[in-house]
Each structure stands twice: as structure tokens, then as C-alpha cells.
Amino acid sequence: MLRSRNAGAAVQPTAPVPAQTVRFSTPVVETPGIFVLARWIARLVGLLVRLPVRFPVAVGTAAVSVAVWHAFGWVALAVVWTVADVGLLVWWRRWPSSFRRLVALRALAAWRWVWVYRRHWQPVLVVAGLAESYQERQYLPRIRRVTCSAWSDRVRVRLVAGTAPADVEQRVTELAHGFGAPSCRVTVNGPRDVVLEFPRFDTLAEPIGALPVPRHVDLAALPAGKREDGAPWRLRLHGTHVLTVGVTGAGKGSVIWSAVRAMLPAIEDGTAQVWAVDPKRMELSYGRSLFAEYADTGEAAVGLLEAAVSMMQDRAARYAGKQRVHTPTEADPFVAVVVDEVAFVTAYHPDRDIRRRAENALATLTSQGRSVGVSVLAALQDPRKEVLNLRNLFPDKIALRLDEASQVDMVLGDGARERGANAHLIDPDLPGVAFVRLEGSPAPVRVRAAFVSDADIDAMAGGCGRGGGAV
Ligand SMILES: Nc1ncnc2c1ncn2[C@@H]1O[C@H](COP(=O)(O)OP(=O)(O)OP(=O)(O)O)[C@@H](O)[C@H]1O
After folding, report:
1. Annotated binding residue at 413?
2. Endoplasmic reticulum: is it a keyword of this entry (predicted)?
């Protein structure tokens, strides 16, 4: 075989390869000082033109103050300011919500724009790796607007052309720390248009007591707790199946009990039933009288699940060709099959036959039960496939505190962690806090389930809620 004489010789990295013996480089031309000065002046004029548009109230106030002072002197200015302050004070006391919306939150937004976001924008984004370079120039996403709600700042951002919202979603932790916020969530409005939401404080830090029992039960929107933005968190049960995942002590019981509590009037009037599987015998046994069916051993649990399958198939046979949607009635009530620690019957039970039968029954219920009014609400500690390979049959999932970062996407679906659903970082002192995905939005929402105490369950089981009043 012929070998080149140079084979194996070290190649000098600086030596030009034959095709590049002539190298072109851009000449450096010194910019005349007049151009630099003209550019600064142009930028200053641009800023002065934009200021009244961006901060009309602040600029208007300053302009009026200067005009009054110039025309009538400082005494007149002091009088005008005193009258304005008294007016604001009266507005605040008499109409606090409109004052808050139109004055306080707007002033706060302007302040946070200038002091927090404008000031730290470039260093934080560069260090977080969100600055792009092209032809030796640096390009940053641009702040379009900052607005404040009672609990968070929403920074609307125009992305650099050629970048994607996913680039920002992957840096939410850096952004949150960079701007001193507990978390950051990304919402995509449209092309190159995203909103970064930074909470200013944790609205879910205080536990929420059991919610009042609703007068009219909406099985598609059961009040179960509070969302981070202060709105009620409503859990859909009819027409879906819900999987609640969290480590021990994360608060799975509070989700289950809040749902049962919200169904109480329907349970009492016979239009809803709860069939409970309680392998730990600790969580659900307390309110046993509320359940139409109850099982606390492996054999009994499988029997209950298979009975639910038969009932569901009987309904499906009766509905076939006549009715496509289930409406709860006393004859055909909505059935919520509540399974606490579902892995006990699908993975941990020593009898293989029990595990197989339980898994088959759950697969049948979750794949066919929705349209005939049978829903499964299951709780689970470990979301891995080996433990519950049916997890994708649950359309709705709730991620309470999890063990590992990798479990977040297992529960809430791909991309949930990048969008800020840091369920593995939930404080152990905040049981009941969870991330959920609401219908029609890929952005995960942070919620806290209401805590239903033993006394509340006692009262519920004792029938105090009859008639739909608060228990
Ligand atoms: N929503 C909540 N708000 C406030 N405290 C809560 C809430 N949920 C649970 N807790 C507290 O945390 C404790 C553990 O909750 P819970 O038993 O529901 O956890 P779990 O996830 O079901 O745990 P395990 O899997 O071990 O049963 C409760 O005894 C209660 O003190």
C-alpha cells in the first residue's frame, strides 16, 4: 500500500492550507468622533420621544409640576401637590380596588421595570446564556412591557429572531434567581412573543382549610384548593381520570378528600358514588360511611375494580346506539373509583395474579370509563413505568412534591419542567402544593389543595353537609 511521506506528521495549526495562501480580513477603520456624538444624541432624542409614550402619567406629572412652578411659583406647586395627594388618599380609602388596579399596580410595574428588569436585564441574560451574537454584535431579547398583578410580575418579551421560546424555557431557574424571584414561568403568546411570569412572593405559603361544600355540584369543576394567582383550583373528575403523584407526606390525601368533599351533596342525593380502595387503611378508612364500596385488601381491591368494570360494561351496553354522554342520575350515578397508593395492587402485592387482574381492570376502566360516568382518581408515590405502566391512561395528572427532577416530565408530560413545574423543589413544609396542567394550556400552574382535617371528615361522614350547606 502506498503511504504519503507526510502521513503522521504533526500539522501546524497556524500554517495556511494551500487553498488559503491569501487571507482576507476586514480592515479596521477608526470612527470619527462626530459620528459617535451624533449617535449618542440620536439615542437621547429617541429616549425623550419614547418616554411620554411609555410613562405617560409620570412624564405628565413632571411636566405639569414644572409648568405650575414656572408660571405661579413653588407655593402654588405645593398646593397642587397637596390637593393631588389628598385626592389619591380619598381614592385609596373609598375605592381601594380601582386605586390598586389603576395606580398602585401601575406604579409598582414602572418601578420594577426600571429598578429590577431594565437594570439587571443584560447581565442576567448574558450570564444565563440567552444573548445571541451575530457579526460581532450582541442581541438580547427585548422587554416590551412589565405589568404587575397582586402577586407576580409579568414581563412581556420580544425574542431575538432565530431563537425559540424553548431556549428561554430551559433557563427559567437562572432567570428566577437572576431577578430574585422564587420561580419563573413562560407563556408563549405568539411568534417571538413570550411572557415571563415572576412571582413576588409565595401566595400558597399558608395552608388552606377545607373549602365550603358547594350547593350545586359540578363534577367537571370540583373546588379542590387555590391556584397561585388566587383563583380557585377546580378539579375535573367527570369525563376524565386523575392521577395524583407525590412522595410520602406530599399531601395526596388532601387532593382525594377535597374532591370527595366537593362531591358531598351529589353523594347524599345519590347522583354520585365513591368506590374506595384503601390498601394503607389509614387514609380513607376514616370516612368509610361515605363510600358506596370499600376495599382494604388486595383480593377485595381487585374484586371492587372488577365490579366497577362489569358495571361500566353494563352501562356501555345499555347506552350503545342510544346515548353518547353520561348524565348523572340516581339510577346511573357518577362513580369515582378512588384508589389510594395504586402501586400496592399493580406492583407491590406479592400475588402475581392479583397484580395482573388489578392492572387489567384499571386499564379497562381508564380506557373506557369516561363516557359512561366512571372515573378513576388514583394516588401514587413513585411514577416510574415499572411501578405503574398505565400512567398515560390518566389524562389529568397532579404533581405534588416529587423525589427527582426527572419525575416531573414523567407525571406532567414532556417539557413541563422546562416550563417551570419544579415539583421536585417543592418545599417539604408545604404539603398539598402541586403543579397541574389546566385544560387548553401547556403551561403548568402551581396550586395548593385544601386540607380536609379528620374533624372535617367526621363531620362529612356524620351527614352534617346534608342540604348542601357548609360542613
Ligand atoms: N393541603 C394540605 N395543606 C396543609 N397541610 C397538609 C395538606 N395536605 C397534607 N398536609 C399535612 O401533611 C400530612 C401528610 O399528608 P398526607 O397524608 O395527605 O400525605 P400523603 O401524600 O397522602 O402521604 P402518604 O403517601 O404517606 O399517605 C398531613 O397529616 C397534614 O398534616
Report:
1. no
2. no
The reply to whether the predicted model has a pTM over 0.90 is no
Per the domain annotation, does 7 fall within a domain? Answer: no
Strand partners, 132: 139
Alpha carbon 396 to its chain centroid, in Å, reads 13
* Domain boundary pick from 71, 94, 117: 94
Q: What is the CATH number for 408? A: 3.40.50.300
Catalogue the long-range contacts made by 114-120 (C-beta closer than 8 Å, 24 or more residues apart).
Answer: 116/153, 116/179, 116/180, 117/143, 117/146, 117/153, 117/155, 117/179, 118/143, 120/178, 120/179
For residue range 398-423, list pLDDT tens digits in order.
Answer: 999 999 888 999 899 888 887 778 89
Q: Are 151 and 246 found together in one domain?
A: no
The reply to whether 32 falls in a domain is no
Q: How far is the CA of 266 from the centre of ligand 1 (A)?
A: 25
- H or E stretch at 168: helix 165-169
451 DSSP assignment: B
The predicted-structure confidence for 428-455, as pLDDT tens digits, reads as follows 999 999 999 876 667 788 999 999 998 9
Residue 141 sits in a domain whose CATH number is 3.30.980.40
Judge if 411 and 262 occupy the same domain.
Answer: yes
Q: Is residue 292 part of a domain?
A: yes
* Chain centroid, CA 402 distance in Å: 15
The answer on 355 and 415 residing in a single domain is yes
The preferred substitution site among 203, 233, 254, 286 for testing ligand 1, maximizing ligand atoms within 8 Å of CB, is 254
Q: Please list, in sequence order, all residues whose beta carbon lies within 8 angstroms of the beta carbon of residue 171, skipping any fewer than 6 positions away.
A: 128, 129, 130
User: In this structure, is residue 18 part of a structural domain?
Assistant: no
* Ligand 1 surroundings by CB, under 6 angstroms: 207, 246, 248-254, 283, 381, 431-432, 449, 451
Domain identity same for 398 and 266: yes
Domain region containing 352: 222-318+325-461
CA dihedral 397, 398, 404, 405 (to 10 degrees): 80
Whole-angstrom Cα distance, residue 437 to residue 417? 12
Q: What is the pLDDT of residues 200-224, one digit of tens each?
A: 988 899 999 999 998 889 999 999 9
Task: Round to whole Å and give the CA distance between 141 and 161.
Answer: 9
Q: DSSP characters for 300-323? A: HHHHHHHHHHHHHHHHHHHHTTT-
The grid coordinates listed for 110 are 414602572
Is the separation of the CB atoms in 186 and 419 below 8 Å? Answer: yes
Which amino acid residue places its CA nearest to atom 24 of ligand 1? Answer: 248
